[in-house]
Design goal:
It is a single chain. By secondary structure, the protein is of the alpha+beta class. The protein folds into three domains: 147 residues, OB fold (Dihydrolipoamide Acetyltransferase, E2P) (Beta Barrel), CATH 2.40.50.140; 30 residues, no CATH class; 247 residues, Bira Bifunctional Protein, Domain 2 (BirA Bifunctional Protein, domain 2). Helix content is 33%, strand content 26%. Strands 8-12-13-20-19-18-17-16 form an eight-stranded mixed sheet, with helices on both faces. The longest helix is centred in the middle third of the chain and has 23 residues. It is elongated and about 85 Å long. Its cofactor is Mg(2+). This is Lysine--tRNA ligase. Its EC number is 6.1.1.6. It is an enzyme of class 6 (ligase). Pfam families: tRNA-synt_2, tRNA_anti-codon.
Length: 510
């Protein structure tokens, strides 16, 4: 056992003893409720709550606050401590003469630890140093912690401020996000911004008149993207089901059913590798609008994300690492093959698979036997083009082999009307003029089935029910998917997808 583990175990035993002592004294260390009337931020933002020197306590608004004890400065019969609630921290002043000898000397001084949840009732005043503080008239233990909170300590050494015991190990922070949120307040800000980002997108689409819907997560036939699914089994129906990899095909069924615009914030699942840009469980929003095409959708995406940037940052400019990303529209639009030729010098448009393999070999791209034309082009694009696109850019007009659900290009042979928005070196959005020709769609699915038979496990399967829905008629439609996690990384200046997920997938601890 390490020294750290030994210390933690010892602390656990000490706190268990304190817990029992509280109970022996007749205290309830885990009461059922506590009425909270004010939060720290509200008190700090409202100086009218502060008691003036010439005011009687009875004339001052009383406050009731609750949260964790984060620091204590005991000075005999009185103590200052910091209380952390959901909105920040505020200082509390507590005196033996006000709360009683046993409450102060035993319950507070002896049996209360850093991290314990407590409730305070009293009034607000300002200390001699000008700090807004809650003057405690009542003290209540609300939850006795049995493990020490890893609170960092700042120490002055050789004229420098050094921090000790910081909860800074990234992997441990992801595994124990609850502690991360307690001791690293900036993490709360990240998730607050993520929530505001989603709400801004929802409000924008609602204002456009689109309907938010829900579609199945458990699906008998997975589809809507090229990915390997998670598989499960339904006992009552005795059938295999899949966690959805996308919700596209169900949302298009709703367009068939007569809706002009539907969207869904969905949890999707793809049985693939983990990286700082990939988590097996992720969030995206998909939107489908009848009678529109991918040109219209490009303008919509520009306006939507520009709106989000302004809502979160008050500007179209967002600082991301060393870059300033400007979401002001319009954004550049570059055809995919043109972008590849600009970066590699190779014109791949119209090339057969042997020519593509030769080009990939020249570019040191590793290929697998199962790779078709679309996969080879995608690998070249991902290696040579995508990482260089920092400012938001629309890459348009993809090869038909890469896009089995997109409409054929109205002018260019072998291409489809599709775009991806690339920003900060990664795709954040994908959109099509949706394929609504059921005969063409069946042929595309059958080609995907052939690729799957050749070993491509990410190729799509044939969805007969969806094909039947198309045969009942779907109007011209523009479809869009935006990766919420990746967009949140940009909007919150986060380096890893795990920084914007409360509980990212992790390998088991040894």
């Amino acid at each position: 056992m390490s020294n750290t583990e030994s210390s933690a175990s010892e602390q656990h035993e000490i706190r268990l003893e304190k817990l029992q002592e509280l109970r022996d004294l007749g205290y309830q260390p885990y009461p059922h409720n506590f009425e909270v009337t004010h939060h720290s931020k509200y008190i700090l933002d409202h100086p009218k709550l502060i008691k003036e020197d010439d005011q009687d306590e009875e004339d001052v608004e009383q406050v009731s606050v609750a949260g964790r004890v984060m620091t204590r400065r005991i000075m005999g019969g009185s103590t200052f401590f910091n209380l952390q609630d959901s909105e920040g921290e505020i200082q509390v002043y507590i005196r033996r003469d006000d709360v009683g000898e046993e409450e102060y000397n035993t319950v507070f001084k002896k049996l209360t630890d850093i991290g314990d949840f407590v409730g305070i009732k009293g009034h607000v005043f300002k200390t001699g140093t000008g700090e807004t503080t809650v003057y405690a008239k009542e003290f209540h233990m609300l939850s006795k912690t049995l493990r020490p909170i890893p609170v960092p300590k700042e120490v002055e050494e050789d004229g420098e401020t050094k921090v000790y015991d910081a909860f800074s190990d990234k992997e441990q922070r992801y595994r124990q996000r609850y502690l991360d949120l307690v001791v690293n307040p900036e993490v709360r800000n990240t998730f607050q911004q993520r929530s505001e980002m989603v709400q801004a997108m929802r409000n924008y689409m609602n204002d456009e008149g689109y309907l938010e819907v829900e579609t199945p997560i458990l699906q008998p036939v997975y589809g809507g993207a090229s990915a390997e699914p998670f598989v499960t089994h339904h006992n009552a129906l005795d059938m295999k089901l899949y966690l959805r990899i996308a919700n596209e095909l169900y949302l298009k069924r709703l367009i068939v059913g007569g809706y002009d615009g539907v969207y869904e914030f969905s949890k999707d699942f793809r049985n693939e590798g983990l990286s700082r840009f990939h988590n097996p469980e992720f969030t995206q929003v998909e939107l489908y609008v009848a009678y529109k095409d991918y040109n219209w959708m490009m303008e919509f995406v520009e306006q939507l994300i520009e709106h989000v940037a302004k809502e979160l940052h008050g500007s179209t400019e967002v600082e991301v690492g060393e870059n300033t990303i400007d979401f002001a529209s319009p954004w550049p639009r570059i055809p995919m093959f043109e972008a590849i030729e600009d970066e590699t010098g190779k014109d791949l448009y119209g090339k057969d698979i042997d020519e593509l393999k030769e080009a990939a070999q020249d570019l040191d791209i590793e290929l697998e036997d199962s790779f078709g034309k679309g996969k080879i082009i995608d690998e070249i694009f991902g290696e040579y083009v995508e990482p260089n696109l920092i400012q938001p850019t629309f890459i348009t007009d993809y090869p038909i082999e890469m896009s089995p659900l997109a409409k054929k290009h109205r002018e260019k042979e072998g291409l489809v009307e599709r775009f991806e928005c690339i920003c900060n070196g990664k795709e954040i959005a994908n959109a099509f003029s949706e394929l609504n020709d059921p005969v063409d769609q069946r042929e595309r699915f059958e080609e995907q089935a052939r690729l799957r038979a050749d070993g491509n496990e990410e190729a799509m399967t044939i969805d007969e029910d969806f094909l039947q829905a198309l045969e009942y008629g779907m109007p011209p439609t523009a479809g869009l998917g935006i990766g919420i996690d990746r967009l949140a990384m940009i909007m919150t200046n986060s380096d890893s997808i795990r920084d914007v997920l409360f509980f990212p997938q992790m390998k088991p601890e040894k």
